[in-house]
Amino acid sequence: MLLLISPDGVEEALDCAKAAQHLDIVDVKKPDEGSLGANFPWVIREIREAVPADKPVSATVGDVPYKPGTVAQAALGAVVSGATYIKVGLYGCTTPDQGIDVMRAVVRAVKEHNPDALVVASGYADAHRIGCVNPLAVPDIAARSGADAAMLDTAVKDGTRLFDHVPPDVCAEFVRLAHASGRLAALAGSVRQDDLGELTRIGTDIVGVRGAVCEGGDRNAGRIQPHLVAAFRAEMDRHDRERAAGLPAAR
Ligand SMILES: O=C[C@H](O)COP(=O)(O)O
Question: Which UniProt keywords apply (predicted)?
């Protein structure tokens, strides 16, 4: 399982760089603009320069409306700025067809600029609270649009968590659907260390975190701490080892 960490700007990205050996992807976002809030192009560029070259930089394009042209242009901005994972939150898409329209436009805009960049279609585990597409529709949206990964995060960061909205057996189905069409499955949403057993067991490819590696577990007031990134990674590695050894998922 890969570890994606979401700093909110250059300063926190430098803390991620200090913990670079413990993480796999640095994910640029602007949390005060939403769960998948988009940051400025110059911040993506600065973060690309600040983190080791072998660590991919991801950028969120926002909690986007159903406006394929607008979103495609924003996605191009992110990839031009140096991101090689482009994450789109399908906030304003109320049907799978709308999600596919948006993601097809994003895939074209991104891959015409950099065919190796990965496009991530993200839905929301708490979709019922905001009226967007059902979480289990996201793997098919990813597959039919040519995106590389299907993701879930939570839209409302109020302390509720991924498994509060989409229980582990439904997340397992999400992962199964993504893998059936050859996509990666990424899961996030106030994930904590004690979720890692389940996330490992169901075959999650990428886990995304912020709050769990901020001081006090507070994604807003807390700052990312390199020692918390290291501890989170150690727990991931423990579960990976146990899974490889065929032991039952531990808490
Ligand atoms: O992409 C990952 C998100 O930033 C997760 O943030 P969170 O762990 O605070 O919910």
Answer: Lyase, Schiff base
